[in-house]
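Known limitations

Files may contain more than one protein. Parsers should not assume a single record per file. Below, a two-record file is shown to illustrate correct handling: read the sequence, read the token line, then continue until end of file.
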Amino acid sequence: MINLYMDDYRPCPGGFALARDGEECLMMLRDCEVNILSLDHELGFGQMDGTDVVKAMIHEGLYAKEIYLHTSSMYGKKRMYELLYQAKPADVIVHNGPMPAELLEQIARSAGRSE
């Protein structure tokens, strides 16, 4: 089981696999069981954005156990949250914002112990 961080620009937090674009994120969701997924919205000119990724996730039934939205785009965050919240299975937790610093630190620490 992996934690997955989708962002075209920001550095990847410790304990996460990185997807730099929407296609890579979807491929990893198809191929791996994902515990925590953190999504950006703006992924570069001419690329899928976070809303496109969420729509594909819903269409294909690709969900992580827990989903965070770390984007700085207020419109993107609102749109992704609304889509995910309406479509998610009951056991999936969707957060309307980024992961708390304490959780990021805990994941990085536990990843360091398992390497």
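...continuing to the second record:
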Amino acid sequence: MPIVQVSILEGRDKEQIRQMIEGVTQAITDSLQVKPEQVRVLVTEVPPSHWGAGGVTKEQSRSL
């Protein structure tokens, strides 16, 4: 049973997340030849204050 963990910034609507889960599931079923019901996709939404790159948070970089 493949389990895929995806971390994304907060702010996307439920339909976008649903479509992403559908697309990831399809990619896994195609590449690993498993049934869609065997695939688990876990989505974690991270606030901009907890997402950093280059030593600054996404929240900080938005205000620059």
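Parsers that stop after the first record will miss the second one. For reference, the second record is described as follows. The first helix runs from residue 14 to 32.
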